[in-house]
Amino acid sequence: MSYGQQPGGPQDGRYGQQPGGPQNPQGPQYPAGFTPPQPMSPEDQRLWATLTHVGGIFFSLVVPIIAYLVLRDRGQFIKEHTRQALNFHITMAIAYVVAWLLCLVVIGFVLLPIIGVVVIVFAILAAVAANRGDLYRYPLTIEFVKQ
């Protein structure tokens, strides 16, 4: 290699290749100093899944979005629970908006507390299932985030 040439240039056949390509079958290469996400233990996955469901009661979409983006690569159990929580809270946010609009014709005032109770009850059921180590699918949920 001469002065000014970068390692991995055209002379070694990797120029323009994507990580994990034909010359690198073992998978993606990460930059120096970067460590890929490590899988969580089953106990940690259960804890974070439980906290995601409970956090959705108090902070609506914020906790499930952050949990999904940060924890989805840490294990299949946590990925499924955060995805379910995110889909449920997106659906409930849409229901809240519709109920607020229906307040103009009075029926929204009846729907708002019903939606609030539905969120609390189903999130608690999901948190209990996550704490036991079971998968939980929220009813009444539109699947926005697919697997």
Question: How are the SSEs placed, and which strands pair?
Answer:
Elements: H1 42-59, H2 62-71, H3 76-102, H4 107-132
Describe the protein in words.
- By secondary structure, this protein is mainly alpha-helical.
- It has 4 helices and no strands.
- The chain has helices at residues 42-59, 62-71, 76-102, 107-132.
- Helix 1 (42-59) runs antiparallel to helix 4 (107-132) and helix 3 packs antiparallel against helix 4.
- It starts with 41 loop residues before the first helix and ends in a 15-residue tail after the last helix.
- Residues 1-5 and 9-18 have low confidence and may be disordered.
- In the predicted model, the low-confidence regions spanning at least 5 consecutive residues are 1-5, 9-18
Apparent shape: elongated
Strand content: under 5%
Annotation field: number of helices: 4
Index terms:
single chain; 147 residues; mainly alpha; elongated
Quick take:
The chain is mostly helical and 147 residues long.
